[in-house]
Amino acid sequence: MIDQFNMRDHFVSLCNLVNQTRLDGVLVQSGELIANMTGGRIALIYLLDATGRNLVLSGGYAQGFSTWAPGSRIHPLQGGGRSPVCPLTQVAFTGKNLCLDNGTAGYDMSPVISALDGVNCPSHVAVLPLARANADFLGVAVVLSDGAIAPWLDRSVARQILRAVAAAIETRQVVAGQENEKAMLAKSLARAEGDRMSLRQRETGRLSKRLIGRSRPMQALREKVAHLADKTGPVMILGEDGVGKEKVARAMHEHSVHSASAFVYANCASLPIDVFAPELFGHKRGAIKGVASARQGLLRKAGNGVVYLDGIDRLCGPGQEMLLRLLETRQYRPLGSDRDLPLAARIIVSARSDLSARAQEGTFLPGLYYRLREMAITVPSLDECREDIGDIVQAVLNGIEREEKRHLKLHPAAFAFLSQRPFPGDRRELEGLTRLAASNAKDGTMLTAEHFQAVDAQSEPENVSTPGILPLPEALAMFEQDLITRALAQTDGNRTTAAEMLGVPKRTLADKCKKYGL
Ligand SMILES: Nc1ncnc2c1ncn2[C@@H]1O[C@H](COP(=O)(O)OP(=O)(O)OP(=O)(O)O)[C@@H](O)[C@H]1O
Protein backbone atom coordinates (compact mmCIF):
# COMPACT_ATOMS: atom_id res chain seq x y z
CA MET A 1 0.00 0.00 0.00
CA ILE A 2 2.82 2.36 0.90
CA ASP A 3 4.63 1.72 -2.36
CA GLN A 4 1.50 2.15 -4.48
CA PHE A 5 0.35 5.20 -2.60
CA ASN A 6 3.67 7.07 -2.73
CA MET A 7 5.21 5.76 -5.94
CA ARG A 8 4.46 8.88 -7.96
CA ASP A 9 5.77 11.19 -5.20
CA HIS A 10 8.93 9.11 -4.87
CA PHE A 11 9.48 9.26 -8.58
CA VAL A 12 9.09 13.06 -8.65
CA SER A 13 11.42 13.44 -5.64
CA LEU A 14 14.00 11.16 -7.24
CA CYS A 15 13.92 13.26 -10.42
CA ASN A 16 14.36 16.39 -8.30
CA LEU A 17 17.25 14.75 -6.53
CA VAL A 18 19.04 13.83 -9.73
CA ASN A 19 18.51 17.31 -11.15
CA GLN A 20 20.19 19.07 -8.23
CA THR A 21 23.40 20.71 -9.31
CA ARG A 22 24.66 21.63 -5.83
CA LEU A 23 25.50 19.47 -2.84
CA ASP A 24 23.29 21.44 -0.40
CA GLY A 25 20.34 21.02 -2.81
CA VAL A 26 21.00 17.28 -2.99
CA LEU A 27 21.08 17.08 0.81
CA VAL A 28 17.76 18.88 1.29
CA GLN A 29 16.18 16.77 -1.44
CA SER A 30 17.62 13.59 0.07
CA GLY A 31 16.25 14.51 3.47
CA GLU A 32 12.80 15.09 2.02
CA LEU A 33 12.87 11.84 0.10
CA ILE A 34 13.95 9.82 3.15
CA ALA A 35 11.42 11.52 5.41
CA ASN A 36 8.59 10.87 2.94
CA MET A 37 9.68 7.30 2.41
CA THR A 38 9.76 6.52 6.14
CA GLY A 39 6.78 8.67 7.16
CA GLY A 40 9.18 10.77 9.19
CA ARG A 41 8.85 14.43 10.15
CA ILE A 42 12.53 15.26 10.12
CA ALA A 43 15.51 13.76 8.31
CA LEU A 44 19.14 14.74 8.98
CA ILE A 45 22.13 13.80 6.85
CA TYR A 46 25.57 13.36 8.46
CA LEU A 47 28.54 12.83 6.15
CA LEU A 48 31.97 11.43 6.90
CA ASP A 49 34.60 14.17 6.66
CA ALA A 50 37.91 14.03 4.76
CA THR A 51 39.77 12.70 7.84
CA GLY A 52 37.38 9.73 8.06
CA ARG A 53 37.13 10.30 11.83
CA ASN A 54 34.17 12.65 12.10
CA LEU A 55 30.58 12.80 11.00
CA VAL A 56 29.48 16.26 9.98
CA LEU A 57 25.86 17.35 10.07
CA SER A 58 25.62 18.46 6.46
CA GLY A 59 21.94 19.00 5.62
CA GLY A 60 18.41 18.16 6.55
CA TYR A 61 14.74 18.39 5.99
CA ALA A 62 11.90 19.19 8.38
CA GLN A 63 8.29 18.94 7.39
CA GLY A 64 6.59 22.33 7.23
CA PHE A 65 9.83 24.23 6.71
CA SER A 66 10.32 25.32 3.10
CA THR A 67 14.07 25.32 3.66
CA TRP A 68 15.84 24.15 6.76
CA ALA A 69 19.57 24.25 7.14
CA PRO A 70 20.74 22.82 10.46
CA GLY A 71 24.02 24.40 11.49
CA SER A 72 26.90 22.14 10.55
CA ARG A 73 28.17 20.24 13.57
CA ILE A 74 31.03 17.84 13.88
CA HIS A 75 30.66 14.58 15.78
CA PRO A 76 33.78 12.49 16.27
CA LEU A 77 33.17 8.79 15.75
CA GLN A 78 33.70 7.29 19.16
CA GLY A 79 35.83 4.32 20.02
CA GLY A 80 34.04 1.11 20.99
CA GLY A 81 32.78 0.14 24.45
CA ARG A 82 31.43 3.54 25.40
CA SER A 83 28.26 3.95 27.32
CA PRO A 84 25.84 5.40 26.46
CA VAL A 85 26.39 4.40 22.84
CA CYS A 86 26.42 7.03 20.10
CA PRO A 87 23.84 5.76 17.56
CA LEU A 88 25.68 7.46 14.67
CA THR A 89 28.94 5.69 15.57
CA GLN A 90 27.19 2.36 15.90
CA VAL A 91 25.72 2.60 12.40
CA ALA A 92 29.03 3.84 10.99
CA PHE A 93 30.79 0.76 12.37
CA THR A 94 28.08 -1.86 11.72
CA GLY A 95 26.74 -0.49 8.41
CA LYS A 96 23.29 -1.65 9.52
CA ASN A 97 20.02 0.24 10.09
CA LEU A 98 19.36 1.18 13.72
CA CYS A 99 15.67 1.63 14.42
CA LEU A 100 14.74 2.96 17.86
CA ASP A 101 10.98 2.69 17.73
CA ASN A 102 10.90 1.51 21.33
CA GLY A 103 12.79 4.38 22.91
CA THR A 104 16.36 5.61 22.95
CA ALA A 105 17.44 4.28 26.34
CA GLY A 106 21.12 3.40 26.40
CA TYR A 107 21.93 5.73 23.52
CA ASP A 108 23.52 9.14 23.64
CA MET A 109 21.12 11.19 21.54
CA SER A 110 22.96 14.49 21.95
CA PRO A 111 24.30 14.60 18.31
CA VAL A 112 20.67 14.46 17.15
CA ILE A 113 19.07 16.67 19.82
CA SER A 114 21.68 19.38 19.37
CA ALA A 115 20.89 19.47 15.64
CA LEU A 116 17.23 20.20 16.22
CA ASP A 117 17.89 23.63 17.65
CA GLY A 118 14.73 23.75 19.71
CA VAL A 119 12.53 21.91 17.20
CA ASN A 120 10.39 19.45 19.13
CA CYS A 121 12.03 15.99 19.01
CA PRO A 122 9.69 13.27 17.74
CA SER A 123 9.49 10.00 19.69
CA HIS A 124 10.81 7.52 17.07
CA VAL A 125 14.33 7.55 15.73
CA ALA A 126 16.12 5.56 13.03
CA VAL A 127 19.71 5.88 11.87
CA LEU A 128 20.30 4.58 8.32
CA PRO A 129 23.73 4.03 6.75
CA LEU A 130 24.62 5.60 3.40
CA ALA A 131 27.28 3.82 1.35
CA ARG A 132 29.38 4.79 -1.62
CA ALA A 133 29.25 2.85 -4.88
CA ASN A 134 32.32 0.87 -3.74
CA ALA A 135 30.51 0.08 -0.45
CA ASP A 136 32.67 2.45 1.62
CA PHE A 137 30.90 4.30 4.39
CA LEU A 138 29.60 7.70 3.22
CA GLY A 139 27.49 8.87 6.16
CA VAL A 140 24.15 8.36 7.87
CA ALA A 141 20.60 9.61 7.53
CA VAL A 142 18.73 10.11 10.82
CA VAL A 143 14.94 9.92 10.62
CA LEU A 144 12.76 11.34 13.37
CA SER A 145 9.14 10.35 13.29
CA ASP A 146 6.01 10.54 15.43
CA GLY A 147 5.16 6.97 14.46
CA ALA A 148 6.93 3.63 14.04
CA ILE A 149 9.61 3.65 11.38
CA ALA A 150 10.47 -0.06 11.17
CA PRO A 151 7.60 -1.04 8.86
CA TRP A 152 8.67 1.53 6.32
CA LEU A 153 12.25 0.34 6.35
CA ASP A 154 11.25 -3.20 5.44
CA ARG A 155 10.15 -2.15 1.96
CA SER A 156 12.53 -2.90 -0.88
CA VAL A 157 11.99 0.63 -2.18
CA ALA A 158 13.61 1.91 1.01
CA ARG A 159 16.91 0.28 0.13
CA GLN A 160 16.70 1.56 -3.42
CA ILE A 161 16.00 5.08 -2.32
CA LEU A 162 18.83 5.06 0.20
CA ARG A 163 21.15 3.83 -2.60
CA ALA A 164 19.92 6.59 -4.94
CA VAL A 165 20.41 9.19 -2.22
CA ALA A 166 23.94 7.96 -1.49
CA ALA A 167 24.80 7.90 -5.20
CA ALA A 168 23.48 11.45 -5.69
CA ILE A 169 25.48 12.71 -2.69
CA GLU A 170 28.62 10.90 -3.80
CA THR A 171 28.33 12.27 -7.35
CA ARG A 172 27.87 15.82 -6.05
CA GLN A 173 30.76 15.39 -3.67
CA VAL A 174 33.01 14.24 -6.51
CA VAL A 175 31.86 17.08 -8.75
CA ALA A 176 32.22 19.58 -5.89
CA GLY A 177 35.69 18.20 -5.22
CA GLN A 178 36.59 18.51 -8.87
CA GLU A 179 35.18 22.01 -9.01
CA ASN A 180 37.08 22.88 -5.89
CA GLU A 181 40.25 21.48 -7.40
CA LYS A 182 39.52 23.32 -10.64
CA ALA A 183 38.98 26.58 -8.74
CA MET A 184 42.19 26.04 -6.77
CA LEU A 185 44.06 25.18 -9.95
CA ALA A 186 42.64 28.26 -11.68
CA LYS A 187 43.67 30.34 -8.66
CA SER A 188 47.20 29.00 -8.65
CA LEU A 189 47.40 29.36 -12.44
CA ALA A 190 46.26 32.98 -12.12
CA ARG A 191 48.84 33.48 -9.36
CA ALA A 192 51.57 31.88 -11.50
CA GLU A 193 50.52 33.94 -14.51
CA GLY A 194 50.57 37.07 -12.33
CA ASP A 195 54.05 36.14 -11.06
CA ARG A 196 55.19 35.45 -14.61
CA MET A 197 53.79 38.77 -15.82
CA SER A 198 55.37 40.77 -13.04
CA LEU A 199 58.67 38.92 -13.53
CA ARG A 200 58.44 39.60 -17.26
CA GLN A 201 57.59 43.25 -16.57
CA ARG A 202 60.52 43.53 -14.18
CA GLU A 203 62.81 41.88 -16.70
CA THR A 204 61.53 43.96 -19.61
CA GLY A 205 61.86 46.98 -17.35
CA ARG A 206 65.50 46.08 -16.78
CA LEU A 207 65.99 45.62 -20.52
CA SER A 208 64.45 49.04 -21.25
CA LYS A 209 66.94 50.60 -18.87
CA ARG A 210 69.80 49.07 -20.84
CA LEU A 211 68.44 49.25 -24.37
CA ILE A 212 66.91 52.67 -24.25
CA GLY A 213 64.14 53.74 -26.60
CA ARG A 214 60.39 53.68 -26.86
CA SER A 215 60.33 53.46 -30.67
CA ARG A 216 58.75 50.41 -32.29
CA PRO A 217 62.08 49.04 -33.62
CA MET A 218 63.59 49.24 -30.12
CA GLN A 219 60.55 47.54 -28.58
CA ALA A 220 60.86 44.78 -31.17
CA LEU A 221 64.58 44.53 -30.45
CA ARG A 222 63.98 44.11 -26.70
CA GLU A 223 61.37 41.43 -27.36
CA LYS A 224 63.80 39.54 -29.55
CA VAL A 225 66.57 39.87 -26.97
CA ALA A 226 64.27 38.52 -24.25
CA HIS A 227 63.16 35.70 -26.55
CA LEU A 228 66.70 34.59 -27.42
CA ALA A 229 68.17 35.16 -23.95
CA ASP A 230 67.40 31.72 -22.58
CA LYS A 231 67.94 29.76 -25.74
CA THR A 232 71.21 27.97 -26.32
CA GLY A 233 73.36 28.23 -29.41
CA PRO A 234 75.30 31.09 -30.93
CA VAL A 235 73.77 34.49 -31.59
CA MET A 236 74.84 36.94 -34.27
CA ILE A 237 74.22 40.63 -33.68
CA LEU A 238 74.31 42.72 -36.84
CA GLY A 239 74.52 46.48 -37.16
CA GLU A 240 76.74 49.34 -38.19
CA ASP A 241 79.46 50.81 -35.95
CA GLY A 242 78.18 52.34 -32.74
CA VAL A 243 74.55 51.17 -32.99
CA GLY A 244 74.85 49.27 -29.70
CA LYS A 245 75.69 45.67 -30.66
CA GLU A 246 77.79 45.05 -27.57
CA LYS A 247 75.13 46.62 -25.42
CA VAL A 248 72.59 44.21 -26.88
CA ALA A 249 74.91 41.27 -26.21
CA ARG A 250 75.40 42.32 -22.59
CA ALA A 251 71.67 42.90 -22.12
CA MET A 252 70.95 39.42 -23.49
CA HIS A 253 73.45 37.88 -21.09
CA GLU A 254 72.03 39.76 -18.12
CA HIS A 255 68.55 38.62 -19.11
CA SER A 256 69.58 34.95 -19.25
CA VAL A 257 69.66 32.31 -16.52
CA HIS A 258 73.47 32.41 -16.68
CA SER A 259 73.69 36.10 -15.88
CA ALA A 260 75.80 35.36 -12.78
CA SER A 261 78.54 33.91 -15.00
CA ALA A 262 81.14 35.97 -16.82
CA PHE A 263 80.72 38.01 -20.01
CA VAL A 264 84.07 37.89 -21.79
CA TYR A 265 84.90 40.29 -24.60
CA ALA A 266 87.27 39.64 -27.51
CA ASN A 267 87.90 41.84 -30.51
CA CYS A 268 88.51 39.67 -33.56
CA ALA A 269 89.33 42.50 -35.91
CA SER A 270 92.38 41.59 -37.97
CA LEU A 271 93.74 39.10 -35.42
CA PRO A 272 95.97 36.49 -37.11
CA ILE A 273 95.11 32.90 -36.29
CA ASP A 274 98.22 32.38 -34.14
CA VAL A 275 96.97 35.09 -31.81
CA PHE A 276 93.26 34.34 -32.04
CA ALA A 277 93.49 30.58 -31.37
CA PRO A 278 95.47 30.70 -28.08
CA GLU A 279 93.42 33.70 -26.97
CA LEU A 280 90.18 31.80 -27.40
CA PHE A 281 91.24 28.27 -26.49
CA GLY A 282 94.13 28.95 -24.13
CA HIS A 283 97.40 27.05 -24.20
CA LYS A 284 99.54 24.73 -22.14
CA ARG A 285 102.92 25.66 -20.75
CA GLY A 286 105.56 25.64 -23.48
CA ALA A 287 103.00 25.32 -26.28
CA ILE A 288 103.88 28.76 -27.61
CA LYS A 289 107.44 29.71 -28.35
CA GLY A 290 108.72 32.42 -26.04
CA VAL A 291 105.73 32.14 -23.64
CA ALA A 292 106.79 30.38 -20.47
CA SER A 293 103.49 29.96 -18.65
CA ALA A 294 100.20 28.31 -19.50
CA ARG A 295 97.21 30.54 -20.15
CA GLN A 296 93.51 30.03 -19.73
CA GLY A 297 91.50 30.80 -22.88
CA LEU A 298 88.45 33.05 -23.06
CA LEU A 299 86.15 30.05 -23.45
CA ARG A 300 87.35 28.71 -20.11
CA LYS A 301 87.20 32.12 -18.43
CA ALA A 302 83.59 32.60 -19.47
CA GLY A 303 82.46 29.31 -17.84
CA ASN A 304 78.85 28.95 -18.85
CA GLY A 305 78.56 32.68 -19.45
CA VAL A 306 79.21 34.44 -22.75
CA VAL A 307 82.18 34.93 -25.04
CA TYR A 308 81.44 38.00 -27.15
CA LEU A 309 83.43 38.04 -30.39
CA ASP A 310 83.29 41.60 -31.66
CA GLY A 311 83.85 42.23 -35.37
CA ILE A 312 83.59 38.64 -36.58
CA ASP A 313 83.42 39.99 -40.15
CA ARG A 314 87.06 41.06 -39.76
CA LEU A 315 88.25 37.71 -38.43
CA CYS A 316 90.89 36.04 -40.59
CA GLY A 317 89.88 33.09 -42.81
CA PRO A 318 91.48 30.34 -40.67
CA GLY A 319 89.86 31.92 -37.60
CA GLN A 320 86.45 31.71 -39.29
CA GLU A 321 86.99 28.04 -40.06
CA MET A 322 88.09 27.36 -36.51
CA LEU A 323 85.03 29.08 -35.12
CA LEU A 324 82.70 27.11 -37.38
CA ARG A 325 84.29 23.89 -36.20
CA LEU A 326 83.89 24.96 -32.57
CA LEU A 327 80.19 25.69 -33.10
CA GLU A 328 79.60 22.42 -34.92
CA THR A 329 81.45 20.10 -32.55
CA ARG A 330 80.92 22.15 -29.37
CA GLN A 331 84.41 21.03 -28.35
CA TYR A 332 87.83 22.66 -28.40
CA ARG A 333 91.38 21.79 -27.54
CA PRO A 334 93.78 24.21 -25.83
CA LEU A 335 97.10 24.51 -27.67
CA GLY A 336 99.57 21.87 -26.54
CA SER A 337 96.87 19.80 -24.85
CA ASP A 338 95.85 16.28 -25.87
CA ARG A 339 92.34 16.59 -24.43
CA ASP A 340 89.20 18.11 -25.93
CA LEU A 341 87.11 20.28 -23.63
CA PRO A 342 83.36 20.81 -23.97
CA LEU A 343 82.11 24.23 -25.02
CA ALA A 344 80.09 25.52 -22.06
CA ALA A 345 79.94 29.22 -22.89
CA ARG A 346 77.47 30.79 -25.27
CA ILE A 347 79.08 32.44 -28.27
CA ILE A 348 77.68 35.82 -29.29
CA VAL A 349 79.28 37.50 -32.27
CA SER A 350 78.87 40.93 -33.79
CA ALA A 351 79.26 41.91 -37.40
CA ARG A 352 78.42 44.72 -39.76
CA SER A 353 75.11 44.37 -41.53
CA ASP A 354 76.63 43.53 -44.93
CA LEU A 355 77.80 40.07 -43.83
CA SER A 356 75.26 38.30 -46.03
CA ALA A 357 76.66 40.00 -49.14
CA ARG A 358 80.18 39.15 -47.97
CA ALA A 359 79.25 35.49 -47.60
CA GLN A 360 77.72 35.50 -51.06
CA GLU A 361 80.75 37.01 -52.70
CA GLY A 362 82.99 34.58 -50.80
CA THR A 363 84.94 37.03 -48.64
CA PHE A 364 83.35 35.55 -45.50
CA LEU A 365 83.02 31.80 -44.87
CA PRO A 366 79.48 31.00 -46.08
CA GLY A 367 79.13 27.97 -43.76
CA LEU A 368 79.85 30.11 -40.71
CA TYR A 369 77.42 32.76 -41.87
CA TYR A 370 74.62 30.22 -42.34
CA ARG A 371 75.31 28.73 -38.91
CA LEU A 372 75.31 32.13 -37.26
CA ARG A 373 72.24 33.52 -38.95
CA GLU A 374 70.04 30.86 -37.29
CA MET A 375 69.77 33.23 -34.35
CA ALA A 376 70.47 36.70 -35.63
CA ILE A 377 69.44 40.10 -34.38
CA THR A 378 69.80 43.29 -36.37
CA VAL A 379 70.15 46.39 -34.23
CA PRO A 380 68.21 49.27 -35.77
CA SER A 381 70.25 52.39 -36.44
CA LEU A 382 69.50 55.65 -34.65
CA ASP A 383 68.16 56.95 -37.96
CA GLU A 384 65.41 54.35 -37.77
CA CYS A 385 64.65 55.35 -34.16
CA ARG A 386 64.96 59.14 -34.17
CA GLU A 387 62.18 59.46 -31.60
CA ASP A 388 64.51 57.77 -29.06
CA ILE A 389 67.06 60.60 -29.17
CA GLY A 390 65.48 62.45 -26.22
CA ASP A 391 65.45 59.32 -24.04
CA ILE A 392 69.06 58.45 -24.84
CA VAL A 393 70.22 62.01 -24.04
CA GLN A 394 68.22 61.95 -20.82
CA ALA A 395 69.85 58.63 -19.83
CA VAL A 396 73.28 60.17 -20.35
CA LEU A 397 72.28 63.21 -18.24
CA ASN A 398 70.96 60.92 -15.52
CA GLY A 399 74.32 59.12 -15.51
CA ILE A 400 76.14 62.46 -15.18
CA GLU A 401 73.88 63.40 -12.31
CA ARG A 402 74.66 60.12 -10.54
CA GLU A 403 78.41 60.24 -11.15
CA GLU A 404 79.16 63.96 -10.94
CA LYS A 405 76.20 65.22 -8.91
CA ARG A 406 75.45 67.77 -11.63
CA HIS A 407 71.82 68.29 -12.54
CA LEU A 408 71.16 69.17 -16.19
CA LYS A 409 68.03 69.29 -18.30
CA LEU A 410 67.60 69.13 -22.04
CA HIS A 411 66.14 72.30 -23.54
CA PRO A 412 63.34 71.62 -26.07
CA ALA A 413 65.26 73.63 -28.69
CA ALA A 414 68.27 71.37 -28.14
CA PHE A 415 66.05 68.37 -28.72
CA ALA A 416 64.79 69.94 -31.95
CA PHE A 417 68.42 70.53 -33.00
CA LEU A 418 69.43 66.93 -32.26
CA SER A 419 66.38 65.56 -34.07
CA GLN A 420 67.60 67.21 -37.25
CA ARG A 421 71.29 66.48 -36.90
CA PRO A 422 72.70 63.44 -38.71
CA PHE A 423 74.52 60.82 -36.59
CA PRO A 424 76.85 58.83 -38.83
CA GLY A 425 78.50 57.46 -35.65
CA ASP A 426 75.06 56.39 -34.45
CA ARG A 427 74.25 56.08 -30.73
CA ARG A 428 77.92 56.22 -29.77
CA GLU A 429 78.17 59.64 -31.44
CA LEU A 430 74.99 60.87 -29.75
CA GLU A 431 76.24 59.69 -26.37
CA GLY A 432 79.66 61.30 -26.85
CA LEU A 433 78.19 64.55 -28.15
CA THR A 434 75.88 64.76 -25.14
CA ARG A 435 78.77 64.21 -22.72
CA LEU A 436 80.86 66.91 -24.38
CA ALA A 437 77.95 69.37 -24.50
CA ALA A 438 77.21 68.62 -20.84
CA SER A 439 80.83 69.26 -19.86
CA ASN A 440 80.36 72.88 -20.97
CA ALA A 441 77.12 73.40 -19.06
CA LYS A 442 76.83 74.57 -15.47
CA ASP A 443 75.10 72.55 -12.77
CA GLY A 444 71.36 73.23 -12.57
CA THR A 445 71.11 74.71 -16.06
CA MET A 446 69.46 73.75 -19.31
CA LEU A 447 71.48 72.02 -21.99
CA THR A 448 70.72 74.19 -25.03
CA ALA A 449 71.22 73.77 -28.77
CA GLU A 450 74.21 76.14 -28.45
CA HIS A 451 75.98 73.70 -26.16
CA PHE A 452 75.75 71.02 -28.85
CA GLN A 453 76.59 73.41 -31.68
CA ALA A 454 79.71 74.56 -29.82
CA VAL A 455 80.95 70.94 -29.69
CA ASP A 456 80.26 70.54 -33.40
CA ALA A 457 82.12 73.77 -34.21
CA GLN A 458 85.18 72.62 -32.23
CA SER A 459 85.33 69.29 -33.97
CA GLU A 460 84.98 70.66 -37.50
CA PRO A 461 88.31 70.62 -39.37
CA GLU A 462 89.75 74.11 -39.86
CA ASN A 463 88.47 75.82 -42.95
CA VAL A 464 90.93 75.10 -45.64
CA SER A 465 90.22 77.21 -48.66
CA THR A 466 90.50 74.81 -51.49
CA PRO A 467 91.47 76.55 -54.66
CA GLY A 468 89.21 76.21 -57.61
CA ILE A 469 90.38 74.57 -60.80
CA LEU A 470 93.55 76.34 -61.99
CA PRO A 471 95.28 76.09 -65.36
CA LEU A 472 97.83 73.27 -65.08
CA PRO A 473 101.03 75.42 -65.49
CA GLU A 474 99.82 77.77 -62.75
CA ALA A 475 98.94 74.86 -60.45
CA LEU A 476 102.30 73.19 -61.11
CA ALA A 477 104.11 76.44 -60.34
CA MET A 478 102.22 76.73 -57.03
CA PHE A 479 103.08 73.15 -56.17
CA GLU A 480 106.75 73.67 -57.13
CA GLN A 481 107.00 76.84 -55.07
CA ASP A 482 105.45 75.13 -52.04
CA LEU A 483 107.80 72.16 -52.34
CA ILE A 484 110.94 74.31 -52.61
CA THR A 485 109.83 76.48 -49.67
CA ARG A 486 109.41 73.39 -47.49
CA ALA A 487 112.75 71.89 -48.59
CA LEU A 488 114.55 75.14 -47.76
CA ALA A 489 112.76 75.34 -44.42
CA GLN A 490 113.84 71.81 -43.52
CA THR A 491 117.48 72.46 -44.51
CA ASP A 492 117.63 75.84 -42.78
CA GLY A 493 118.10 77.56 -46.17
CA ASN A 494 120.98 75.35 -47.28
CA ARG A 495 120.44 75.27 -51.07
CA THR A 496 123.00 72.49 -51.68
CA THR A 497 121.21 70.08 -49.31
CA ALA A 498 117.75 71.25 -50.50
CA ALA A 499 118.75 70.58 -54.14
CA GLU A 500 119.86 67.07 -53.11
CA MET A 501 116.55 66.50 -51.36
CA LEU A 502 114.58 67.66 -54.38
CA GLY A 503 116.79 65.70 -56.78
CA VAL A 504 117.69 68.64 -58.99
CA PRO A 505 121.06 70.28 -59.77
CA LYS A 506 122.06 73.17 -57.51
CA ARG A 507 121.90 75.54 -60.47
CA THR A 508 118.28 74.62 -61.33
CA LEU A 509 117.26 75.26 -57.72
CA ALA A 510 119.01 78.65 -57.81
CA ASP A 511 117.09 79.62 -60.97
CA LYS A 512 113.78 78.58 -59.50
CA CYS A 513 114.48 80.46 -56.23
CA LYS A 514 115.15 83.54 -58.33
CA LYS A 515 111.94 82.96 -60.33
CA TYR A 516 109.77 82.68 -57.24
CA GLY A 517 111.64 85.31 -55.27
CA LEU A 518 112.72 82.87 -52.56
N1 LIG B 1 69.95 51.69 -26.94
C1 LIG B 1 70.93 52.44 -26.46
N2 LIG B 1 70.63 53.35 -25.57
C2 LIG B 1 71.60 54.13 -25.08
N3 LIG B 1 72.88 54.07 -25.41
C3 LIG B 1 73.22 53.17 -26.29
C4 LIG B 1 72.27 52.29 -26.86
N4 LIG B 1 72.91 51.51 -27.72
C5 LIG B 1 74.20 51.86 -27.68
N5 LIG B 1 74.38 52.85 -26.83
C6 LIG B 1 75.66 53.49 -26.54
O1 LIG B 1 76.37 53.59 -27.76
C7 LIG B 1 77.73 53.25 -27.56
C8 LIG B 1 78.11 52.19 -28.53
O2 LIG B 1 77.53 50.98 -28.12
P1 LIG B 1 78.22 49.61 -28.46
O3 LIG B 1 79.66 49.61 -28.12
O4 LIG B 1 77.38 48.56 -27.86
O5 LIG B 1 78.06 49.65 -30.04
P2 LIG B 1 78.62 48.62 -31.09
O6 LIG B 1 77.60 48.52 -32.15
O7 LIG B 1 79.02 47.38 -30.40
O8 LIG B 1 79.89 49.39 -31.62
P3 LIG B 1 81.11 48.81 -32.50
O9 LIG B 1 80.50 48.36 -33.78
O10 LIG B 1 81.99 49.98 -32.68
O11 LIG B 1 81.71 47.71 -31.71
C9 LIG B 1 77.90 52.84 -26.13
O12 LIG B 1 78.50 53.88 -25.43
C10 LIG B 1 76.51 52.61 -25.65
O13 LIG B 1 76.37 53.01 -24.31
Principal-axes geometry comes out as elongated
CATH superfamily of the largest domain: GAF domain
- Mean of pLDDT: 87
Instruction: Figure out the total of helices.
Output: 20
In the predicted model, the low-confidence regions spanning at least 5 consecutive residues are 1-5, 462-467
Whole-number total of structural domains: 4
Extended strand count: 17
Helix proportion range: 40-55%
Ligands, deduplicated: adenosine-5'-triphosphate
From the N-terminal CA to the C-terminal CA, the straight-line distance is 149 Å
Largest sheet: 6 strands, antiparallel
Order of strands in the sheet with the most strands? 3-2-1-6-5-4
Q: In terms of structural class, how would the helical and strand content be classed?
A: alpha/beta
Using the CA coordinates, give the radius of gyration.
47 Å
* CATH fold-level assignment of the largest domain: Beta-Lactamase
* Proportion of residues in β-strands: 5-15%
CATH class membership of the largest domain = Alpha Beta
Q: Which second-level CATH architecture of the largest domain applies?
A: 2-Layer Sandwich
Mind explaining what this structure looks like?
- The protein has 518 residues and is α/β, with parallel strands linked by helices.
- It folds into four domains: 2-178, 2-Layer Sandwich (Beta-Lactamase); 216-378, 3-Layer(aba) Sandwich (Rossmann fold), CATH 3.40.50; 382-459, Helicase, Ruva Protein, domain 3; 472-516, Arc Repressor Mutant, subunit A (Orthogonal Bundle).
- 51% of the residues lie in helices and 14% in strands.
- The strands form five sheets. The protein has a six-stranded antiparallel beta sheet with strand order 3-2-1-6-5-4. Strands 8-11-14-7-15 form a five-stranded parallel beta sheet. Strands 9-10 form a two-stranded antiparallel sheet.
- Helix 2 packs antiparallel against helix 6 (156-210), helix 6 (156-210) crosses helix 7 and helix 16 packs across helix 17 (449-459).
- The protein is elongated, with a radius of gyration of 47 Å.
- Bound molecules: adenosine-5'-triphosphate (ATP).
- Adenosine-5'-triphosphate binds at residues 211-213, 239, 241-247, 310, 350, 392, 395, 427-428, 431.
